[in-house]
Design goal:
Chain lengths: 551, 822
């Protein structure tokens, strides 16, 4: 497929954005040295970002097409020795779990890049959003993020994309951790520089919170490393004592290496390591009670960053748990399953109730993400084929729907510069097309059959029911609460008499359509044909749970 | 309904390739009108205020053509079905495998058997008529395209519901009709109350869906025996359920999934979402599934009872049974054709359809049957009593619908499945006629819905009047139209059923008790329907024909209740004015009325003009439906009369194969009960005629209401159920959500911020220590050294004598030390 081969496709997907970022940095230096025109550099960096991101997405699609769903093992492998002394390899590859996430990551990144452009909008909307770049940056009338310090923004965005893609593709713990941390920094700056009024607070909170998780994760990774045995490396030589290779670690786990390891402070080794990894990932999910960074980060982040945050970053928590905890620590996973289910139920119901009380539409949607991530926790804790497939499908469908929701919030924020639900009213009269897309996204998110969100929910329920009957019944009440908070929000914002303040507001422009319609189309197609994703993920996931609870 | 049970065999399936066309046409219609409709309307011209216009013609042509095409395919399917032998009437089409994970494998597939065929014909047939009706009724609507798009969308979803081959596709339709209903109730969304009614409908239905989903999961896993494997208990060994069977069986594709369940006696056993597979394994006793299900218990309750009850909770929501009926009366906020199509003829019967479809399951649990029938009966009488005193003509019909749905549930609950389904069919005709008739009246009276301001319409609207009367005769239960035959069959079966149970033990008195409740409700039905007929069509026209005396003409609201009484009326006639809602595209600011905002002053007298008969699209549809209300009686001529089973019962027999044993009763008794049914109708009719005909007993009525004001006010206010819900459900939900939100923002996030603050505090102490203690020590060393250096500098004088003194002193010290130390 084009010039992509099974060996290089994942590397291309990962490093196209990085190449773009480097190019942009070169342009910034060129501007400093040769005094190039600011507008020229801005435009050039936008194009670079768009093209780099598109190429990365293309590579992700190619990876998806090259992947053979009938084989549940790791495919599309690229493997090189990176640091011989520490047994670190550059090892990327994809199995059913990661291929869906790679595709999602490529798609959402590309959509977010489009949403970062000030292009394809008419004069009125650009004016309302403050997208007109007159070269001045008045602190009292802050410009739209899309025209502030453009090359820096674009470089950060691309770096973030590399981090995400790499995290999903990496099969070496060290490499994984590097990519994981690579994501943090650009995210910090993207929120902290291009964000809303309380951006510094939100950015620092996000950074420190996630870093705290990363530290636990790092300790767990080191513990795993020093407990592991040697493994064959890419150059055909045995590693010196230990290995970072995740696949090899999982194999050693099956052989009982970690179950037999010496206890730490009197507690079983696997349990301690499990908790370390789990807390690190749980912060990212985010799981109750570690979720409070999310609403703040979302509220302050610019729209495309919210899109990436909800669409991709949240998925990494669940992904990491499946990749590390489930694969490497099966015994401890079985031990912790019940607790995971309980936290899942709390996430689902608690966050749904919190949504009901929100007055800021973006915060409402942020909490709804917390609620929806709970489904994944519940489904994967059940460890049934339906549950685990539903959990990962939920990652994908939520990755389609929640970007739509945040884009929708962005549209109205660009026009009205506030997000108070109570201050709107009757918007359907003035922006019908926008209202229709909003309706689709809200209904998709509340789990209307025929749209993507439902199938995942349904599978999680059917998978969790025989294992956690009571929990499942409690979490099924969320179908009521979810409908309640979404419809109530629609009611207050879009229906009723038009608030005269919003008279003459422009409807969607092409930039917004370009971002919203593809996602809407995917949400509908997946609603009727979820097997498109399921056929890729089923095999790997079913093997994964069978390792934990054998047939 | 005696069947030779031992000979039941798996359903023979005829694969066909055109079923998908039936729902496809409405979907195409909906899509075209949704995407292009407003452009069509704009392009092909429509000057403000002008009725019709070519754009609108195009819009409704698309919608009606889609419906007609769908109906045509349905008729074709009917003939193909009919040509097959009675037992093998099952058309099926699988489009694609929707999802597979382990034992859960769901196809996007359609099926037509006798029951769903009947439903499809009703949905597409009555649906087409109502589309035609809407052409006349909605002619002045600016957002015409949106209306027809939603209407087609509804039909699409409804067809998924009835044609679905499995629970999942059915649930797609189940929720899809909910969505369409939400959109159509809130069609005039600029009116917050109407929008709220839509929201209420959806959210209340979600309560039902919660039960439905849980019931479904229970069934799915109950089939697999995830609950308990009972080796040795089952006599039949061909089906040995075990927990592992379902939880861990991995399958990625549909084929793998199918391979997990090797057939037992030619039938796939185990968990399934497919109706046919479910039916086969349950009814063919050799598989042992039935035995397993009947003997299973969950939490000390019979598994099947729990499944039945939970599925019925879903039906309660969709089919507006107690206590989830509250959304239906509010749903009258939608345009009248919507009320006729969705909230009378089709969607609200989904629950009845579902119970009938699963008759082979419900029949295995007498308790579930008992509860279904009992709730149906209580709903029937409860809603009828509210219907007595409503003044809004649509509200009367809404409560009547709730009540009639109750009758249907008596039917399917007692096991008289065909009778319940037959009532569904007859109700579709007469209630559609009544609703559309009321629509015609509302149009004729210039968007007035309050019956107190109608009256005497028989001379202005003859067609509407006669069709309304025919439908009233039908619903009241006189044996000249269809309603009698279905209702009588239901009540008779209720009386003779001794197999119902409530708490696991047989309660033979339940059947007769339900009969009595039903009979009273039937009397009530006759009363409120004739009341609405007489108030609307006889006497003098009380509406405003120019002399603006509306308030004085308020027929019989006592002063105390007058304020409340106005509310629904004001609400009602806002219809016309909220219409410009979608002006954004259609650019037709509706200038039919002079003061578009005047509806705020509830009874403003600006609705001038004499009532008029409606356009032909409306009257023709009314006539066809009224004819249907009479003609469909031939589908249900009782065996008592003709000595052959009723046509419909015979048609449905292979689907409704539940075994219910009805005791043999003497024919005389059946005649007697038919007589009682007619008597009930007559009593209601006579009472309504005495009170309401020509509005002649107004004073007596007012006095009576004054006498029983407490009761009257309670009933008039619908027993304050809405207020009860607000206090018991909504308020606690909101309080909890506010509480949790506070907890989240203040406590949880507070802890996070506290951690930050504490860290900063520790850091500042740390900083202080660093600065004053550690750094202080370092600095102290430095400054001491410096000071020492500074004072010692004075020694460096540069004079040789001073240094010699120093050297001498030093030598002296060395000598002294040497001496003194031992």
């Amino acid at each position: 497929m084009f010039f992509f081969t099974e060996g290089n496709v994942l590397s291309w997907a990962t490093f196209f954005p990085l190449a773009g970022a480097v190019l942009i940095v070169l342009m910034m230096m060129a501007r400093a040295f040769f005094g190039l025109d600011k507008k020229l550099v801005d435009e050039a960096s936008r194009w670079t970002a768009l093209i780099a991101s598109a190429l990365s997405f293309l590579a992700a699609i190619a990876a998806w097409r090259l992947y053979d769903p009938a084989n549940p093992g790791v495919q599309l492998v690229a493997k090189q020795v990176w640091i011989r002394g520490f047994n670190v390899e550059y090892f990327v590859g994809a199995d059913g779990l990661s291929i869906s996430m790679i595709l999602l990551s490529g798609l959402v990144s590309f959509i977010a890049t489009i949403a970062s452009m000030p292009w394809w909008s008419n004069h009125q909307t650009s004016h309302m959003a403050g997208m007109e770049d007159d070269g001045h940056d008045d602190p009292h009338h802050p410009k739209h993020f899309s025209v502030r310090m453009v090359p820096g923004y674009m470089a950060m965005l691309l770096l973030l994309q590399t981090g995400m893609m790499g995290t999903f593709a990496a099969l070496d713990m060290f490499l994984f951790y590097v990519f994981w941390e690579v994501m943090l920094l650009p995210m910090y700056f993207l929120i902290g520089i291009w964000g809303g009024p309380r951006k510094e607070y939100a950015a620092i909170k996000f950074f420190l919170y996630t870093l705290a998780g990363s530290v636990l994760m790092l300790l767990a990774i080191i513990a795993l490393y020093y407990t592991s045995g040697p493994a064959m490396m890419a150059d055909g030589l045995l590693s010196s004592g230990h290995t970072f290779n995740i696949i090899e670690l999982a194999r050693q786990a099956q052989a009982g290496t970690f179950a037999k390891a010496a206890p730490i402070m009197g507690f079983a080794f696997t349990k301690i390591v499990f908790i370390g990894l789990f807390v690190g990932f749980a912060i990212k999910i985010p799981m109750f009670p570690f979720h409070t960074w999310l609403p703040d980060a979302h509220v302050e982040a610019p729209t495309p960053i919210s899109v990436i945050l909800a669409g991709v970053l949240l998925k990494m928590g669940i992904y990491g748990i499946l990749r590390f905890n489930y694969a490497i620590l099966p015994d401890a996973t079985a031990w912790a399953a019940n607790a995971m289910a309980v936290f899942g139920v709390i996430n689902i119901v608690y966050a749904a109730f919190v949504c009901l009380a929100q007055t800021d539409i973006k915060k409402l949607i942020a909490y709804s993400s917390v609620s929806h991530m709970g489904f994944s926790l519940l489904g994967m804790a059940a460890m049934t084929p339906q549950g685990i497939s539903g959990a990962v499908l939920n990652l994908f469908t939520h990755g389609i729907i929640s970007p739509m929701l945040f884009l929708i919030v962005g549209v109205i924020y660009d026009r009205a510069h506030h997000r108070e639900i109570a201050k709107f009213g009757g918007l359907a009269t003035v922006v019908p097309e926008y209202s229709a897309v909003m309706g689709l996204a809200f209904f998709a998110s509340l789990g209307l059959p025929g749209l993507a969100g439902f199938v995942a929910e349904f599978m999680v329920f059917s998978g969790a029911f025989p294992v956690f009957t009571t929990y499942t019944i409690i979490s099924a009440t969320s179908v009521i609460i979810t409908a309640g908070y979404y419809l109530w929000a629609i009611h207050r914002m879009f229906l009723g008499k038009l608030n005269p303040a919003y008279k003459g507001y422009p409807d969607l422009v092409w930039r917004e359509r370009l971002t919203l319609y593809p996602l809407a189309a995917i949400a509908i197609v997946l609603g009727f044909y979820p097997q498109a994703i399921l056929s890729y993920i089923n095999g790997t996931l079913h093997l994964l749970v069978q390792n934990i609870r054998p047939l | 309904m005696e069947h030779a049970t031992s000979e039941l065999v798996p359903v023979v399936v005829s694969q066909v390739s055109y079923l998908w066309l039936i729902p496809l046409f409405p979907l195409i219609g909906a899509t075209i009108n949704a995407v292009l409709g407003w452009k069509l309307q704009g392009l092909f011209g429509e000057k403000p205020g002008q009725k019709g216009g070519r754009g609108k013609q195009l819009v409704h042509s698309i919608a009606v053509t889609a419906m007609a095409a769908s109906f045509a395919v349905a008729v074709y399917a009917f003939f193909q079905l009919k040509a097959l032998p009675s037992e093998d009437r099952f058309l099926q089409q699988t489009l694609w495998n929707m999802l597979t994970a382990g034992r859960l494998s769901v196809d996007f597939a359609f099926a037509l058997d006798q029951l769903s065929m009947m439903m499809v014909l009703i949905v597409t047939g009555v649906g087409t008529l109502i589309h035609v009706f809407s052409i006349g009724y909605m002619a002045e609507e600016p957002a015409y395209w949106r209306f027809f798009s939603y209407l087609n969308l509804f039909i699409f979803a409804m067809l998924l519901l009835v044609m679905g081959d499995n629970f999942a596709v059915m649930f797609f339709g189940w929720e899809g009709v909910g969505l369409a209903s939400y959109l159509l109730i809130a069609f005039w969304y600029q009116d917050k109350e109407k929008a709220a009614a839509g929201m209420k409908a959806f959210v209340v239905n979600r309560f039902g869906d919660f039960g439905f989903i849980v019931g479904l999961m229970l069934l799915f896993w109950g089939l697999g025996g995830a609950w308990q494997a009972r080796p040795g208990v089952l006599r039949n060994t061909s089906y040995t359920p075990s927990a592992e069977l379902n939880t861990m069986a991995a399958a990625t594709t549909a084929a793998q999934s199918a391979a997990l369940a090797p057939p037992v006696h030619g039938v796939k056993v185990g968990p399934t979402m497919n109706f046919r597979e479910l039916r086969d394994q349950v009814v063919i006793e050799a598989t042992g599934v039935k035995e397993h299900l009947v003997n299973s218990t969950v939490w000390g309750v019979s598994l099947l009872t729990l499944i039945g009850m939970l599925l019925f909770v879903g039906a309660m929501g969709k089919s507006a049974q107690l206590p989830l009926y509250v959304w239906l009366p509010d749903a009258m906020a939608g345009p009248t054709p919507v009320s006729a199509l969705i909230h009378a003829a089709t969607m609200v019967t989904a629950g009845v359809y579902m119970v009938a479809r699963l008759n082979f399951l419900f029949v295995l649990s007498p308790s579930a049957m008992g509860w279904v029938a009992l709730i149906g009966a209580v709903t029937a009488i409860f809603a009828a009593s509210i219907g007595f005193f409503q003044y809004d003509i649509k509200k009367v019909l809404a409560y009547s619908t709730v009540s009639q749905l109750g009758f249907m549930f008596i039917g399917v609950g007692t096991g008289a499945y065909w009778a319940g389904v037959y009532h569904l069919l007859t109700h579709a005709f007469f209630k559609a006629t009544l609703f559309l008739g009321s629509g015609s009246v509302i149009l004729g009276c210039h968007h007035e819905q309050d019956m107190r301001k109608m009256g005497g319409l028989q001379k202005y609207m003859p067609v509407t009047r006669w069709t309304y009367l025919i439908a009233t005769v039908a619903i009241a239960g006189f044996p000249v139209a269809n309603g009698f035959f279905s209702k009588d069959e239901i009540l008779w079966k209720a009386f003779t059923s001794h197999h119902l149970a409530l708490f696991g033990t047989p309660t033979p008195w339940l059947g007769p008790a339900i009969y009595v409740i039903g009979l009273i409700a039937a009397t009530g039905t006759s009363f409120y329907m004739y009341r609405s007929y007489y108030m609307t069509f006889t006497g003098e026209y009380r509406g405003d024909t120019g002399h603006g005396d509306a308030h004085a003409a308020v027929a019989h609201a006592p002063a105390a209740a007058a304020k409340v009484a106005h509310a629904p009326a004001a609400h009602g006639h806002a219809d016309a004015h909220a219409a410009p809602a979608h002006g954004a595209h259609a650019a037709a600011p509706h200038d039919e009325h002079d003061e578009p905002d005047a509806h705020d002053d509830a009874h403003g007298g600006h609705h001038g003009g004499v009532p008029h008969e409606s356009p032909w699209q409306i009257t023709v549809v009314l006539a066809i439906l009224a004819a249907g209300s009479v003609l469909t009686l031939f589908l249900g001529i009782p065996m008592l009369w003709s000595h052959v089973p009723p046509v419909l019962e015979h048609w449905l027999e292979p689907v409704l194969l539940a075994e219910v044993h009805w005791p043999e009763m003497p024919h005389a008794m059946e005649w007697l009960f038919q007589g009682l049914g007619v008597l009930a109708a007559t009593v209601g009719f006579v009472a309504a005629r005495a009170v309401y005909k020509d509005n002649r007993n107004e004073q007596a009525l007012l006095a009576m209401i004054e006498r029983w004001k407490g009761v009257w006010t309670t009933v008039f206010n619908k027993y304050y159920v809405d207020e009860l819900y607000a206090a018991v459900v909504i308020a606690p939900f909101q309080a909890l959500s506010r509480g949790l939100s506070w907890f989240d923002g203040r406590i949880l996030d507070g802890l996070v911020n506290l951690a930050g603050t504490v860290t900063r505090f520790v850091a500042s102490i740390d900083g202080a220590i660093d600065r004053y203690l550690v750094d202080g020590a370092v600095n102290a060393v430095a400054s001491i050294t410096q000071g020492a250096g500074r004072s010692l500098r004075h020694l460096q004088t540069g004079r040789i004598q001073t240094y010699l003194y120093g050297a001498l002193g030093g030598a002296l010290v060395v000598v002294l030390v040497n001496f003194l130390l031992p």
